[in-house]
Amino acid sequence: MLSFDEARRTLLARAFVVSSERVTLADAAGRVLARDVVARHPLPGFDHSAMDGYAVACGDFEAGPAGGPWLVPVSGESAAGRGLDALAPATACRIFTGAPLPSNADAVIMQENVRREGDAIAIDARPHPGQNVRRAGEDVARGAIALASGERLSAGAMALAAMLDRSEVVVARRPRVTVLCTGDELRAPGDDPRPGSLPESNSAPVAALARQAGALVRIAPIAGDHLRATQRAIEEALDATDVLLTIGGVSVGDHDVVRPALESAGVTLDFWKVAIKPGKPLAVGSRGKAIVIGLPGNPASAIVTFAVFGAPLLRALQGDRRPLPMALPVRLEATRKRSPDRLELVRARLRVEGSALVARAHDNQSSGATTSLASSDGLAFVPAGDGPLAADATVDFVRWSDV
After folding, report:
1. Rounded CA gap, 253 and 40, in Å?
2. Would you say residue 147 lies in a domain?
3. How many Å apart are CA 35 and CA 172, to the nearest integer?
């Protein structure tokens, strides 16, 4: 068996960066930039007021008395979308948040810090240059890289692109993923049951996690436990996909036909066992540029292994600079037994206790238990070792929302 880290490195080494496409900014959420967004103009584009108040020239106060108050006449107004070109000498200009600063003004006094006396204002404290002013280019200079390729576009990044006057961005196209579930016992949820049948419960959640990672997903018809039929289904899927996810049939049972079917379809396997729990029978290989991940069939095993292997691969295919999910340090709520030779990916709930995150492991960690999937916030990474981990031991935790 490969270690978890070695297996994931081997898989990610197969990642290639997919081609790019241009999309509207409105459709760019969650996409990975394939080209830098360079500022064509400074941001902000002009000096403007950060507050409602009065724009002044600080030099007008240097020749006056050492202390206030100063009585300054008000002349003109600058509002957002229509500014005042210049400030008359020794006067103040009424100004509003976001409005352009008059050309010879260099400070804004908050309206709460003045007293209006007819057509003048009384100022008690001497202003200083730059006070309550946002200077042109203080956020992003002209020609600077505002958003770098490989960045996944958040709402904040989209706001920055919009402020830089971009209506479109160049992003990695979505990787094409095909999900192929196998097993004679499977039927679609809601179909009439037959003796010994089970509703197929893996394709929908795995597809959801794949879409969360940015993929376009096609769910193929269920394949039975028949070598030739499974081989044909694999060959058909490989012709039009970047990543083929088979689910079930990768172990060594008499009816586990996926591994030989993959090999018969021309897939070269890199490995098919990983030292993790759940999910030891995980196969990874390729045919041409198409990458194949053979996930185990039990629901917890399939979803957990896709979360820690499949989703990072999909992010890497898009050129994401951070393909691995963020791991949070958490404390275990209770003492936890450990496997002597396998990393255990434990479904757990999180809670905040003081300044720490605490993980409470679900009682049922069976590879077929969907109850613990439904009621968990993510996975606690319990390392292999001799003897139990004590309560309050710190481990890594990956939330489902970060997959």
Report:
1. 61
2. no
3. 9
- Say if residue 234's pLDDT is above 80: yes
Residues 80 and 216 reside in one and the same domain: no
Q: pLDDT (tens digit, 9 = 90+) per residue, 332-379?
A: 999 999 999 999 999 999 999 999 999 999 999 999 999 999 999 999
| Structure token digits, residue 27 | 């459709």
Taking alpha carbons only, the member of 403, 235, 401 closest to residue 310 is: 403
> How many CB atoms sit inside 10 A of residue 244's CB?
27
Whole-Å CA distances, 8 to 84, 110, 302: 60, 56, 16
CA distance 51 to 43: 18
Q: What does each C-alpha distance from 114 to 68, 79, 108, 118 come to in angstroms?
A: 11, 19, 11, 12
Question: How far, CA to CA in Å, does 6 sit from each of 3, 243, 286, 309, 385?
Answer: 5, 20, 17, 11, 18
Instruction: Based on the fold, state whether residues 263 and 348 are members of the same structural domain.
Output: no
Do 181 and 312 have their domain in common? yes
Q: Are 350 and 397 in contact (CB under 8 A)?
A: yes
Please report, for the domain that includes residue 163, its CATH number: 3.90.105.10
Report the percentage of the chain scoring pLDDT > 90: 92
Whether 294 is covered by a domain: the verdict is yes
Q: Name the residue range of residue 167's domain.
A: 20-41+152-172
Give yes or no for a cis peptide into 73 (omega within 30° of 0). no
Q: Would you give the distance in Å from CA 104 to the centre of its chain?
A: 45
Task: Give yes or no for a contact between 383 and 322, defined as CB atoms under 8 angstroms apart.
Answer: no
Helix (H, G, I), strand (E, B) or coil at 144: coil
Say how far apart CA 362 and CA 356 lie, in whole Å.
19
Is residue 234 assigned to a domain?
Answer: yes
Number of domains observed in the structure of the chain: 4
